[in-house]
Automatic annotation (TrEMBL):
Residues 597-623 have a biased composition (Basic and acidic residues). This is DNA-binding SARP family transcriptional activator. Residues 2-106 bind DNA. InterPro entries: AAA_16, AfsR-DnrI-RedD_regulator, BTAD, OmpR/PhoB-type_DNA-bd, P-loop_NTPase, Sig_transdc_resp-reg_C-effctor, TPR-like_helical_dom_sf, WH-like_DNA-bd_sf. One of its GO terms (molecular function) is DNA binding. Pfam families: AAA_16, BTAD, Trans_reg_C. Belongs to the AfsR/DnrI/RedD regulatory family. Residues 596-623 are annotated as: Disordered. Keywords: DNA-binding, Transcription, Transcription regulation, Two-component regulatory system. One of its GO terms (biological process) is phosphorelay signal transduction system. It comes from Kitasatospora viridis. Signal peptide: none annotated. Residues 2-106 form the OmpR/PhoB-type domain.
């Protein structure tokens, strides 16, 4: 990196056409295909990306046999662009090559997307602290980083996929900006811009609700009701659906001139009534498979609160990639009609993998439930008490994803039995009283095959099994995340893709690379678990023992695990690196064992040990 600093500070901008700047000046980074290769590396910062992964991302299924050598040429040219003074054939540097993989080191603040995401997080914290005007200014600066739709003009399926993700990211930030502006009484200023954005996204109900509220506050009730009518007609004609409950409630409140819709004289002086009930659940997986018994347990337990007089709490636990978040979201969608006052969703870990701060999490939940930011107490204990007051009597469902420990959760629980709480965690959180624990294991052979065929397509005749399919299923060993990654690889190469995938998965040195796609995969999820355990008391020693056990042959592993101290086993199970077999004995998943055996090699590939908290796992990793 020293050579890069000597040559000038680099900055990458992908929130528009992809640009590379050195000391503020744009440098020519090459033709579109070369820029598309750079985009893949930028969106996997600091991570080794296999050459074949780049081929699939940029050329897709139509890649010719000569494309891998073309990737090597593009990387060589990019290296010269980024580090023109670097001597040829030297190791290390910003863009490093290791075997068949490439790694681009991106320093904090060097990528505009990271700057945007960090500013958006700051704005949320400022809003939770009551600094609404400051949050709006921060969000305005963040949105000013956009010069287009993101990755404009770049070819390939990877760029197309991420353009959709970036568009959603920008639109969600714009909605947050308009909410802040309405909290500050700026409805006259934003109503025209809201109208344009709502016209461009006619089916986006949250945006339409904000436009209706702005028009109502501007004294244009007739136009606000027309927006509802147009939205309803569009949804019925295109999707066969009525508007959501929150939009219908807003229409009724406008019809009845509800004074709660008017801006308070001092918006920070007390709680605000909800404009609409929160509906924050992530989208369900259309190919959700199996888990019938666990789903019944979750849905029944979450309906027991009123009878027991206590808040029903269900904890879904299991190792990384086993499908905890997928089951939680699937169950929550099944239950949403039973909780008409809203469904809240909160990820309890930060993007860097560290546990979320309780006070900030409470501030977000309270503002989502209609409490004005200025009315939030400073102390977490008082915020927790306010949450219990605000949620009292409401039929609310809280989905709390990836909990760190029982202490973090206890402050986030409502007190009214009309509410229900669904939690996911890698450990069983024994300190959480009254929770019904639903442990998840890997899928059995039948469900694994069903999921695989739903994702990748089945064999020509029902019941037929190919040796290649059997080999892929054996490697994935029932882990849903591995099955999804493998299926994505296979689908990316239609016609002979399964045979090639099976051959590549047979190579242990390539296996974890193959079970990843873009910014998610098995290795990333296991990295996250390892990093979290490494920060826990006794964690490094437990990891060292797990690594030693993983180096043994499969026959010797059960006895070696049985010989570990109980506190070591508890730690490794709590952080998802061991599983409990049906008989209660510890069990090591073969992909976890492989991940541990290749740990030293992976660190060598990436140039250095990863810093704690460098994990960028997403909810998809945990599904």
């Amino acid at each position: 990196m020293d050579s890069a600093r000597a040559a000038g500070r680099l900055r990458y901008e992908l929130l528009g056409p992809l640009l590379v700047r050195r000391d503020g000046l744009v440098v020519d980074a090459g033709p579109p295909m070369q820029l598309a290769v750079l985009a893949v590396l930028l969106l996997n910062p600091g991570e080794p990306v296999a050459r074949e992964q780049i081929v699939q991302a940029v050329w897709g299924a139509r890649a010719a046999e000569t494309v891998p050598s073309l990737v090597a040429t593009y990387v060589s040219r990019l290296r010269h662009v980024l580090e023109p003074d670097r001597p040829r054939r030297t190791l290390g540097g910003l863009l490093a090559t290791r075997g068949g993989s490439y790694r681009l080191a991106v320093a904090p603040g060097d990528l505009d997307l990271h700057e945007f995401e960090a500013a958006r997080q700051r704005a949320r914290g400022q809003r939770a602290a009551g600094a609404t005007a400051q949050a709006l200014a921060t969000l305005d600066r963040a949105l000013g980083l956009w010069r287009g739709t993101g990755l404009d003009g770049l070819p390939g399926p990877f760029a197309a996929l991420h353009r959709g993700r970036l568009a959603e990211l920008r639109l969600a930030a714009l909605e947050e900006r308009f909410e802040l502006a309405l909290l500050l009484g700026r409805h006259h200023e934003v109503v025209a811009e809201l109208g344009v954005l709502a016209a461009e996204n006619p089916g986006r109900q949250r945006l339409r609700g904000l436009l209706m509220l702005a028009l109502h506050r501007a004294g244009r009730q007739g136009e606000a009701l027309t927006v509802f009518t147009q939205t309803r007609q569009l949804l019925i004609s295109t999707q066969g659906l009525e508007p959501g409950r929150e939009l219908i409630d807003l229409q009724q409140r406008i019809l009845h001139a509800d004074p709660g819709l008017e801006l308070a004289a001092a918006p920070s002086a007390g709680p605000l009534r909800l404009v609409c009930a929160p509906a924050q659940l992530p989208s369900d997986l259309p190919d959700f498979t199996g888990r019938a018994a666990e789903l019944r347990t979750v849905t029944r337990a979450l309906g027991a609160g009123r009878r027991l007089g206590a808040v029903p709490v269900v904890l879904i636990s299991g190792p990384p990639g086993v499908g905890k978040s997928a089951l939680a979201v699937h169950a929550a969608h099944r239950l949403r009609e039973r909780f008409p006052d809203g469904q809240l969703y909160a990820a309890l870990h930060e993007p860097d993998g560290r546990p979320g701060e309780v006070g900030a999490l409470l501030g977000r939940l309270l503002t989502d439930l209609g409490v004005a930011p200025g009315a939030l107490p400073a102390e977490p204990e008082r915020r927790s008490a306010l949450l219990r007051s605000v949620s009292s009597g409401r039929r609310l469902l809280l989905v709390l994803d990836d909990a760190a420990d029982a202490g973090q959760l206890a402050a986030l629980l409502p007190g009214s039995p009309s509410c229900a709480v669904l939690v996911t965690s890698r450990g069983r959180l024994p300190g959480l009283p009254g929770a019904r624990t639903v442990p998840l294991d890997c899928l059995g052979p039948a469900d694994s095959r069903r999921l695989w065929r739903r994702l990748a397509g089945g064999p020509p005749r029902a019941g037929e099994r190919s040796p290649e399919e059997a080999q892929v299923l054996a490697v994935c060993a029932g882990l849903p995340l591995a099955l999804r990654a493998a299926a994505a690889r296979s689908v990316a190469r239609p016609g002979g893709g399964l045979a090639g995938l099976a051959a590549r998965l047979a190579d242990r040195d390539r296996r974890l690379f193959e079970l990843a796609l873009g910014a998610w995969g098995v290795a990333r999820a296991l990295d996250s678990a390892e990093q979290r355990l490494g920060r826990a008391p006794g964690g490094p020693a437990a990891l060292a023992e797990l690594r030693a056990v993983s180096g043994l042959g499969p026959e010797a592993v059960p006895a070696a695990l049985a010989g570990l101290a109980e506190e070591r086993l508890d730690l490794l199970t709590e952080y998802g690196l061991l599983q409990a077999a049906p008989d209660g004995r510890p069990r090591l998943h073969p992909l976890t064992a492989l991940h541990q055996r290749t740990a030293d090699g992976r660190r060598m590939d990436s140039g250095s040990h990863r810093e704690p908290g460098s994990d960028r796992s997403t909810p998809a990793d945990r599904r």
